[in-house]
Amino acid sequence: MAETDSKTATFSDAGHLADDTSNTVVEKDQHDVNAPADDAIEPDYLTGWKLWAVMITLYLNTLLAALDVGIVATAIPSITDEFKQLNYVGWYSGTIFLTLSTTSPVWGKLYKYLSARWVYFVSIVIFLVGSIVAATAKSSIPLIIARALQGVGCSGSIGGSVLMINYVAHPGQQPMFIGLWATVYMLSTIVGPLIGGAFTSYVTWRWCFWINLPVGGPVMIAVFLFFHVPKHVKYLPATWKEIILQLDLPGLAFIFTSLVCFTLSMQWGGLTKPWSNGSEVAVLVMWVVLTIGFFVVEYFQGERAMIPLRLLKSRLQWTNTLYALMVNCAEFQVIFYLPTYFQSVRDQSAITSGVNTLPFIALFAVGSMMSGGIIGKTRVFQPFLLVGGLLATAGAALLYTLEADSSKSRYLGPQVIFGFGIGLGCQVPLMALQSFTPPEDIASVTSIIVMMNSLSGGYFVTAAQSVFDNIVLKQLAKTAPNIDSSLVLATGSTDINKVFSGADLQHVLDAYMVGIKDVFAWCIAGAAFTAVLSLVVPFKKMPPVEEIAVANKKGLEEDAKQVEADV
Fold it and tell me: Which of the given ranges, 312-316, 343-347, 540-544, has the highest pLDDT on average?
């Protein structure tokens, strides 16, 4: 949700509003700017039950949005059985990552100029509309479109939740609430495939989407009842033309099409088309060209860019931003391929598989809340990046040593280490950059971090699927060339024990194990990279809470004067 001009209206952890002297045209009829300036002098942080009511609303909506990111993972085999279109399989799970990551900056701009309450509400509506379309889809294309809509809605909900925490909670409480938010998000992502598997096994895969309606309804009611923007948050009026220009639609087009090319490349390469095929080479080249083009567009867009490049110049900023991108490299591979190990290689049910991932979930939550609480007290953050990276590397290395017949302690123990390590470091970049960033840029920095977290799914989940599929086929070509590779790819990972039997089944399971180990090897590399990267992050103490509060108050006083002058 990268913002625009540092002098343009922007939310911060105190709802900071800055001056835009070049692009914004004041229109009194668009926003309420007649309130006395004195109302904006003191940050209006919530306390008591009002604060927790808002937090619970945010967490419930985050739960709803994050569940849908992975809920179709275990339902895909049943979907392909019904639609009979195997060439669209990758899009069922990948489309949501495309729109989730690329539209987050657009939502950031909307939150800046329009009522946060209504923008947040609209994001929920878009998500629920996408859920209805998905649940009633009769073929692959409507389902893919629905998944794209769900990604757009998820993007607005997830980004809005993070921003809301920053301007309703006191700076001293923000690390704790962000840690809880990260736990809810991760819990939802992990439990999603489990719920999807239960629905697919006992009802129908369509309930993976219908379930959003009875859950989303109460969330919408809660938004109306509790989601009130604090009084100190003001919006600098702007023409609709200027708002549209600030959305950086050219940048959105470049980054979205580059991700589409990357996804196509990963789905074709070595599977439906050789890596040397002309189409495969073309989409790879276009991915590189469009990615470079995106940064060129961002440079010329300046402060209207999705990612204002000036915000990545300092070592503190670019190292934490890169950490936010790479921490999910290891995390997502375990989320998606540990259940594959349980359900395919170990032939466990979706329910049992979910139970066996509980150590990862529990220790992630412990690590996330622990780091958030300690950082809030000590204001020291860099050691958590380092220790988290080292523990995640050790846990990933232990997961790599798993075999088909490993004992329960051998597959539960590594999850404890890995989950705790990821939990310690995953939300630290967001907390750190929010603390060091000037009030007028906090929303922009928050948006960039959220975008990096989402892009991780767009890149690493798609690439991991390509690695897994290619390794499985390569292994089968060596050990069992008589097995139909297209049948292996067409068979869902949960159904291989039904489709194959005897020696063929053993060959397929052995190939699956090799593919899973290669994905876990990638986890080791990703986790090790974050550990090394943490050594480049400057060792600094976050500013004391009192300094942040003073800076916010000063900014609000300046804003009140500016709004009064503009009016």
Answer: 312-316
Residue 208 neighbours by CB under 8 Å, 6+ apart: 68, 71, 72, 75, 134, 195, 196, 199, 200
Q: What residues have CB less than 8 Å from 73, skipping those under 6 apart?
A: 93, 192, 193, 196, 336, 339
Compute the mean pLDDT over every residue in the chain, rounded to the nearest whole number: 80
Whether 187 shows a pLDDT value over 80: the answer reads no
For residue 237, is pLDDT > 80? no
* The pLDDT value given to residue 414: 94
Cα–Cα distance, 400 to 466 (Å, whole number): 18
Given a cut of 70, is residue 566 above it in pLDDT?
no
Print the domain residue range for 401: 310-457+519-536
* Total domains present in the chain: 2
Q: Are residues 435 and 528 in the same domain?
A: yes
pLDDT above 50 (res 48): yes
Distance of alpha carbon 320 from alpha carbon 382, whole angstroms = 10
DSSP string, 411-471: HHHHHHHHHHHHHHHTTHHHHHHHHHS-GGGHHHHHHHHHHHHHHHIIIIIHHHHHHHHHH
Tell me how far CA of residue 274 lies from CA of 224, 277, 310, 472, 541, in angstroms: 53, 5, 41, 15, 51
Do 275 and 376 share a domain, yes or no?
A: no
Encoded tokens for 171: 């700076």
Same domain? For 294 and 394 the reply is no
Q: Is 379 helix (H, G, I), strand (E, B) or coil?
A: coil
CA separation for the pair 253, 102 (Å, rounded): 9
Identity of the residue numbered 200 = T
Mean predicted confidence (pLDDT) in 488-508: 80
